């Protein structure tokens, strides 16, 4: 995703608006943390976990590796404005980057925590409608209310505490995404998992029930089953989109290189994994790893059989994906 010229901090989005301590929200607490050596970079912490990062001087900047990977996949779409639905909002870091890279885009971000939305609107100078609309409520309900063939990209970056709400992971939810996508559209889902990547395998098997083409993106050490981290699952019904040459180049050239798994390697990765359905309890499948948790189980072989492109033991991708925690699933 092309980055525009860096500009000065946007008017109204200043540290003066941010409280020094965590403040209560509907699902816990929220706080904005700024490093002394980077005064324009702000991290939204939700219940003590990094949720979103914004660079007030450069909205195109993405700090979280899984968001960089998602941006690389969005880059495979034809140039021009997009219609994007975000299932999970936080501080809208990825939405801001897409707004900068794709002028004229219309985006909707859904967040279940009403108070967090109020604070984010106050703390950050977000794009105005129709460029970005913040909506509160359950993400699945908002998805089901979305019109047929009305959006180019659906991004699931939603957590209830340290788990993706199960009703967003099912084949029925994926079918709603496929219905809402325009021809040539793409679905991106952030999955936090630990070895042996049980949940990521189940999600890949589930998406394969609905979409013709599936891709998996993660750091090689995560795919090798050597540590927990983020796995980005991508789905589309358009051939040649997920494995476009530019996608792999962007992933390999990222600050922390990532591996793209497609085709037969995805089928091998998901082989034998049960499909997730509405009404099932997905607990105990390896989902929702907390930072610092010890990996469980023996490491599986890497799906594509290739060597890791960076040393093992590097910093883990953030398992929390920009959403608040609490009893209400989003």
Keywords:
single chain; 330 residues; alpha/beta; Rossmann fold; 8-stranded mixed β-sheet; 9 helices; globular; disordered N terminus; disordered C terminus
What does this structure look like?
This protein has 330 residues and is an alpha/beta fold. It has a domain at 59-270: Rossmann fold. It has 9 helices and 12 strands. The protein has helices at 65-74, 93-101, 114-123, 139-144, 171-180, 198-208, 220-223, 245-252, 264-270; strands spanning 23-25, 28-34, 41-46, 49-55, 83-87, 106-111, 132-136, 151-156, 181-193, 213-218, 229-236, 259-262. An 8-stranded mixed beta sheet has the order 7-6-5-8-9-11-10-12, sandwiched between helices. It has a 4-stranded antiparallel beta sheet with strand order 1-2-3-4. It is globular and about 50 Å long. The model is unreliable at 3-12 and 283-330 (pLDDT under 50).
């Amino acid at each position: 995703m092309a980055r525009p010229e860096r500009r000065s901090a946007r008017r109204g989005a200043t540290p003066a608006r941010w409280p020094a301590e965590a403040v209560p929200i509907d699902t816990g607490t929220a706080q904005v943390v700024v490093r002394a050596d980077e005064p324009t970079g702000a991290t939204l912490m939700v219940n003590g976990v990094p949720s979103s990062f914004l660079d007030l001087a450069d909205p195109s900047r993405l700090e979280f590796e899984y968001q960089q990977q998602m941006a690389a996949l969005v880059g495979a779409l034809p140039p021009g404005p997009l219609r994007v639905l975000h299932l999970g909002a936080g501080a809208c870091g990825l939405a801001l980057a897409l707004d900068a890279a794709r002028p004229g885009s219309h985006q909707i971000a859904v967040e279940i925590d009403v108070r967090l939305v109020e604070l984010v609107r106050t703390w950050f100078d977000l794009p105005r409608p129709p460029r970005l609309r913040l909506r509160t409520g359950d993400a699945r309900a908002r998805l089901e209310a979305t019109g047929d063939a009305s959006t180019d990209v659906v991004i699931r970056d939603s957590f209830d505490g340290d788990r993706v709400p199960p009703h967003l992971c099912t084949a029925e939810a994926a079918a709603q995404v496929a219905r809402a996508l325009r021809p040539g559209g793409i679905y991106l889902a952030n999955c936090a998992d630990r070895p042996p990547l049980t949940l990521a395998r189940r999600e890949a098997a589930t998406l394969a029930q609905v979409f013709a083409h599936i891709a998996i993106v993660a750091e090689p050490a995560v795919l090798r089953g050597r540590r927990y981290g983020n796995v980005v699952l991508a789905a589309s019904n358009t051939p040649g989109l997920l494995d476009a040459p530019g996608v792999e180049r962007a992933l390999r050239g990222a600050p922390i290189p990532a591996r793209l798994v497609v085709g037969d390697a995805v089928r091998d990765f998901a082989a034998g994994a049960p499909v997730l359905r509405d009404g099932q309890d997905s607990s105990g499948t390896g989902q929702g790893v907390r930072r610092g948790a010890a990996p469980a189980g023996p490491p599986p072989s890497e799906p594509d059989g290739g060597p890791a492109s960076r040393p093992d033991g590097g910093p883990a991708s953030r398992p929390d994906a920009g959403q608040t925690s609490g009893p209400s699933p989003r």
